[in-house]
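Pinned message: reference record for 2-succinylbenzoate--CoA ligase
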Amino acid sequence: MTPNWILQRAGLTPDRVAISWGDQRWTFREVADRAMDIARKMRGNGLKEGDRVALLAAGGPDTVFLIHGGLLAGFELVLLNSRLTRAELAYQIQDSEAKAVFTDDALLDLAPDSMAVSRLLSGEEEDFQPAELWEEDRTLTIMYTSGTTGFPKGVRQTAGNHLSSAIASALNMGLQDGDVWLCAMPLFHISGFSILSRSLIYGMTVRLQTKFDAEASAEEIADGGVTRMSAVAAQLVRVLDILESRNQRASDSFQQILAGGGPVPSPYIRRAEALGIQILQTYGMTETSSQTATLSAEDALRKSGSSGKPLFFNRIRIDGAEKPGDEGEILISGPHVTPGYIGRFSDSPAQVDGWLHTGDIGRLDDEGFLYVLDRRSDLIISGGENIYPAEIEQVLAGHPSVAEVGVAGVEDKRWGQVPAAFVVARDAVPSEDLEVFCRERLAPYKVPKHYQFVSELPRNASNKLLRRELKTMLEQQE
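Predicted structure (tokens):
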């Protein structure tokens, strides 16, 4: 059993700031009160504890209140991605078998059969007492995987999953009085929701952005408004660009940026260190309720490029590896791993013999540090040689004229596949210059055979690169 985090935190530190957004502040007591009002309205719609309910919301403090209200009402919350199309959302709503869908008024066109939040708040309510304790195997949230290939899977995340993830994170990163975590990640994504759950468990303030704002993030880091931040590489580089252009550094109170969503190119890490920003690379996924491995502060410089060691409760092994350094699929075990899926994939086991098969390729060094190489599905096989797109991206990201870069494999009659680079340039640069740059740093077979300059890279809601769309972009040009 675990205490109901919302009620427990409101009782322990009622007057501490829980959420700040713009110039507004809400204490933990105020958040709990607002959430309870919403919970009564939700239950007033004939719903009961244990029902599965979907939420479609754009972000911001009202989304926090809505999520916490659903948790207090005792529902299994399906957190829908507000950046999907109507058809994509319809699939997830149907697959989840949600008994109700509550939607921000501005998003009703995406889910026309749902109930608007304004209608919910003006409706009947049911007076009830929320559970003071939660079973650790109780499903709190359901999130659909990114769906970068095939059908997205609805992943069950229990109270125990979220709790063990939060505790393991704190044991690694530490906690300090006055911690403020900048949340610029979508709340329907595990990277965003995990910050909300940590806030309740730690008693920590969340500085909320409705959507990522690079200018505001850089300002908060420089002026001491926040102490931590979660980001992916694409967000990180924008913050670094702004700080460098302003000749600013991180304030002394700023601790670190937790960087996930894929490997962070080494040039970004060096730039961040020069600005007084410590980058802790992390590795996790929807199925693991956020982090599985994270680099510790003491190893951040020594093991730059690594995602660290497994956090306290967790285990990682490389499938088929016989010695340190052998590459293979990353397998994960621990109390943070999902018990399973819902809907279409409800009969698919999440774990095989106690291990989650991630589909990611990595290696463990002789000290047990994890290096994530790439998604197995993104692997380029060229003339029998394995090429990891992330390795090429790391190199090209170090070119001074490259702002962002994505690499994907494209079909080739001779080699089967060859790498192609898609570049967002800072300033004009000939593709020949990029080729020379790569040839000085990569084996010949890894050097991209095509370079395409684009205004932006295709990304999903969590800012992960969509490599399949890169291939489509090149095909459309041919």
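Pinned by admin. Summary line: The chain has three domains: 2-134, 161-377, 379-477.
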